[in-house]
Amino acid sequence: MLEALSARDDFNQLLAAQATLPGKVHRQYLTRDLNAWQRAVAVINHYRYIDTLRGSRLAHAMTAVSEVPLLTLNGKEDRRFTLYASSAGKAEREGETTLWLRDSDHTLLASATFSVTRDHDAWQLVIGGLQGPRRHVSHEVIKQATRACYGLFPKRLLLEFIWQLAARSQIAAIYGVSDNGHVFRALRYRLSKGRHFHASYDEFWQSIDGQPESPWRWRLPLCLERKSLESIASKKRAEYRRRFQLLDQLTEQVAILTQRHAGD
Questions:
Q1: Which residue spans within 25-107 are E strands per DSSP?
Q2: Which residues lie across from 123 on neighbouring strands?
Q3: What is the tens place of the pLDDT at every residue in 122-173?
Q4: Cα–Cα distance between 161 and 84 in angstroms, integer?
Q5: pTM of full prediction above 0.90
Q6: Number of alpha carbons in the 13 Å side-chain half-sphere of residue 233
Q7: Under a CB-based contact definition with an 8 Å cutoff, are residues 101 and 70 in contact?
Q8: What is the rounded distance in angstroms from the CA atom of residue 101 to the CA atom of residue 86?
Q9: Segments making up each domain of the chain, as ranges
Q10: Burial class (CB in 10 A: 0-12, 13-18, 19+), 233
């Protein structure tokens, strides 16, 4: 793995973002069932995937040392929410890239860490970590953010971004780590890191129509179909229409993010 990574032009940047990168094969990584060879392949393939985005704003952000703003969503009452990306940093056992959703006060609402791997000549995205806000952030903050996004809660918005990314970069499958498959469930981390579990991965994946594939991970849908406005009760249609407009904002901005610059 180190030989493949050190040959990259951006190797020094990757090391600056994740000093532990060379030793990843020797520690639990992404999902608990991977052996050392599978960990190495997963890491290498993530950066090969980023190479397919070379020249786009997104490619730079996915390996950045600090958070890079990707897009901003305008919600109810002029509330603004910004989605950032960076190298995984402190979440390096859960993947290679982290997405961060923050409100206009820069309060972290949710984050997701993932890697894009390769299986049978097809890209697949594996979410190794999905977190809500820090402990000091009240539930009321999340409630108000969800209201401002017309019923879309922060973690769901991160998934909407991932679905759009998958659609625009030939990702054929999306997986989410299970409660039992998370790296911090390994015996060596259970006592020191177990406190990091605040919510059930399994319950969240089930809420977005995921299907358990193994004890270690869930297979997630590649999108969630929108309800037709005609099927929605008339008193709720205006709210759903604005929700769909918010999602359209996201879709349009992801399209721009994944565009390669001329000459790259």
A1: 68-74, 80-87, 97-103
A2: 118, 171
A3: 999 999 999 999 888 999 999 999 999 999 999 999 999 999 999 999 999 9
A4: 11
A5: yes
A6: 2
A7: no
A8: 12
A9: 2-257
A10: exposed
